[in-house]
Amino acid sequence: MNARTLFLAVVALSAAAFVRAQTLSAEEQERAITEEQVTALVAQVCAELGQDAAATIAKINQGAAPYKDAANPALYVFVYDPEVVMVAHPRADLVGKSVKGKPDVKGKKFRDEIVERALKGEAGWVDYLYQKPGETGIHPKTTFFSKATGSDGATYIVCAGKYQAKVGAK
Q1: How would DSSP label each residue in 79-137?
Q2: Could you tell me the residue ranges of all domains in the chain?
Q3: Which of 70, 79, 100, 143 matches a 20 to 30 Å C-alpha distance to 157?
Q4: Is 145 left (phi over 0), alpha (psi -120 to 50) or beta?
Q5: How far apart are the C-alpha atoms of 169 and 61, rounded to whole Å?
Q6: How far apart are the two ends of the chain, measured CA to CA in Å?
Q7: Confidence band (pLDDT; 50, 70, 90) for 4?
Q8: CB 119: neighbour CB atoms within 10 A?
Q9: What is the pLDDT of residues 53-97, one digit of tens each?
Q10: Of 15, 38, 16, which is closest to residue 161 (Cα–Cα)?
């Protein structure tokens, strides 16, 4: 397959996903996020941080695509430093805040676990409970993480997640 054909195929798939996302409710969009999409986004951001950390962080903080999916805003990336401080997030009010030791409603210090495991060289998933912005109730969520070294020499922990179906939900 030549580059032009590949490009056209990617554009067609992206357009189809965008149209499909427009017909789904927000909850259906959240459930439609795949583990493959999450891990691919994390891998992309890890690579981009290595090429130009400052520009990548700025784009994430602006909520620019692909760092926050235009068709499905529940798919976005965020980045911690080794001290569990949020260095990049589409929500500006979270950037620069330490979340070290902050647990979920069941007491799980999932952010600390993510950073600790990443600093040991692991990449993987962490499950926890989270309140969706703008909604009431607690929802199960899973986040994929990986460590990256930025072009600035800094260590970053890149994350993206997805909400899981509630227990007993279809």
Answers
A1: EE-TTSBEEE-SSGGGTT-B-TT---TTS--HHHHHHHHHHTT--EEEEEEEPPTT--S
A2: 33-163
A3: 70
A4: beta
A5: 33
A6: 40
A7: low
A8: 12
A9: 999 999 999 999 999 998 889 999 999 999 999 999 999 999 999
A10: 38
Residues making up the chain, counted from first to last: 170
> Which amino acid is present at 44?
Q
Q: Which CATH superfamily is 33-163 part of?
A: PAS domain (3.30.450.20)
105 burial via Cβ count (<10 Å: 0-12, 13-18, 19+) = exposed
Q: How many Å apart are CA 31 and CA 165, to the nearest integer? A: 7
> CA separation (Å) from 69 to 18, 97, 98?
10, 23, 25
Contact 89, 73 (CB under 8 A): no
